[in-house]
Amino acid sequence: MTIALQAAQLALGYGNQKNKIGNVIAEVNLSLTAGQVLVIQGPNGSGKSTLMKGLARQLKPAAGTISLDGKNIWQMNIGEFARQVAYVPQSVELPWEMTVHELVSLGRNPHQKWWSTALSTSESALVAAAMSRCGLDGMGRRKVNELSEGEKQRATMAMALAQEPHFILLDEPTANLDFRYQLELIAIIKELKAQNIGVAAILHDLNLCARVADQVLLVGKSKHNAEKSAEISLQPAASSIVALGSVKEVLQPAQLRAVFDVDLTIVPDPDGDCDIYIPRSVIN
Amino acid sequence: MLVKLSALILFTIVLMLANLCLGDIMVQPLEALQTIFAPPAAQPGQLHDVIFGIRLPRLLTAALVGLALATSGYLLQALSRNDLADPYLTGVSSGAALGVAFAMLLKFDFQNIPIFAFAGGITASFFVAFLAKGQAHYGLSVAKLLLAGIALSSVASAVITMAMTVFGTQLMAQGLNLWLLGGISGRSWSELIPTSFYVAVGFVAALATAKQLSLLSLGEEAASSLGLNVGRSQVIILSAAVLLASSAVALSGMVGFVGLVAPHISRRLFGRAVRLQLVTSGLTGACLVLFSDLLARTLNASQELPLGTLMALIGGPFFIYLLSHSLERVNQ
Fold this sequence. Notes:
The complex is a heterodimer.
Chain A: E1 4-12, E2 25-33, E3 37-41, H1 48-55, E4 63-68, E5 71-72, H2 78-82, E6 85-88, H3 100-105, H4 121-133, H5 149-162, E7 167-170, H6 179-194, E8 198-202, H7 206-212, E9 215-220, H8 223-232, E10 240-245, H9 247-250, H10 253-260, E11 262-268, E12 275-282
Parallel strand pairs in A: 3-8, 3-9, 6-7, 7-8
Antiparallel strand pairs in A: 1-2, 1-4, 4-5, 9-10, 11-12
Helix pairs in contact in A: 4-5
Chain B: H1 2-21, H2 29-37, H3 46-80, H4 92-105, H5 113-133, H6 142-167, H7 170-180, H8 189-208, H9 210-216, H10 220-225, H11 230-252, H12 258-270, H13 274-298, H14 307-324, H15 327-330
């Protein structure tokens, strides 16, 4: 039986009841099943991170529902949710003199009693494996605030792996990684997929996206909506789904041009089975 | 680390012994210890009275107040994620003092006073937290926190003065003023014992939240994605901090800066690991107040200095130093 993280007619925005700011993203319907990789694509400011926050139970939906295994995530206990879904934000604050090992061990929190930080033998092995998988072998005693940005990103990734979730949500996991670790991350995502874990990730790099995605979600503002919204109010229009489907279906030049205003060339990879995407020029 | 921790514990014990022996009447350390642990049967002499009636309750009060204020300061700093927070500067102590003033006016027994102090302190803390939250995504704005604390302290002390002038007797007003200056002279077992119960509850609660503090240090977003109920944890930690500070206020009035200085020294010596800090901040605070009270008693033999005044003399410049070294962060 496969479980799924699903969004139905989801709209997300910031602000409270009194001071309602327009939705950032609206009318999202998607389904991520265990063992599947969903990559979210879209221009800056199109609500990708907002959508991630919504799926990660960080932001209450303005409309619609998100369900996990058929259960509304906001009716779940926060610990119950964290045992199933891990979220790696764009940046995690690591201000204290915590060691890498302590940080990764905190990933076990949803599985522990509220006061306990003790790791069982199997949990210790799990933490070690997670660190090793993220290239942090021998760095357990390093202080996290002394790490480089890329190492911090790997450490927070290891923390999410130690959480043993069914789904992992990654907000720009490659932002600070050099290309070696970008490839490592793609390999990790593929391993997670093989372990029947569902992954949703925001990746800007079309080539990385093409290598790993089962589904691509392209979000953006349609021209029609933007004009209609400008007529009735000063608020910018909410983004919505432009396309959702396989790599070949979504990453088409015409579609990408419409959303990003960029001309692309797509060429077949002589040594691999993914196409290569070359952004050429910005259309004015 | 274990060596350093043992040294701190040993230092605390030495300071306690010094507080026990030094003063108008000098007592030999051995003699003092003998009086406490192996009292000569059935003849409570002068030494016995000095030790049990005056010095012992006073030094335990000093240690308790220091421990409570320093732990409270540490919790507030961890919670607001800035090293300048302290129960005195954030108005928590003033709120607690207001509670105590009302309890005094209504002539409640001393053992109920910490409850009033807690009620005043928790109201003040929620008020300040609300004002300082503002638009800040992470933690509380330093500038707003301190300004809200100042505003609240002024209002609280004005209300105390007004209430005492209108409703209190002159004697009561004098007593309150002395108490507000901060001091622990003349504290007896009957005041110490109930308060130590509240401090124990607050301290145990603080120790129990060590993991929550670690998780919160990653930011609210990361903490909640690790399954922490952020709001509930913050309320529990804040309540523990306020209970500790209010108990100290009930016992010693307005002794400032301990909650600021002690965690800072402790961080310099022991680093920032949460569980260790919870213990070492408290011990450092105990040492600080024991030492200050020793000075307050012995510096000027004819009349002792108010402890609060002495702490402000030590802590004020320290605060200015910290402030000038973190101006960039204050400006945020």
